[in-house]
Amino acid sequence: MPEDLYTRYQAAHTAYRTHRATCTSCTDTSRCRTGQQLYERFTALQDAYLNRLRQQRR
Hints:
Elements: H1 2-22, H2 33-57
């Protein structure tokens, strides 16, 4: 499961970066609707992955 979570987290980051590179509405401080959804998915998966790593270290 952690590998799958890592893969999903990295894919979400790639999707957000790809969108951000082409979207003229997104900036560092504000995002279009699609950009916001992609960013939220990326950050949620990143948090889940990092929390999983912390739990494994205990």
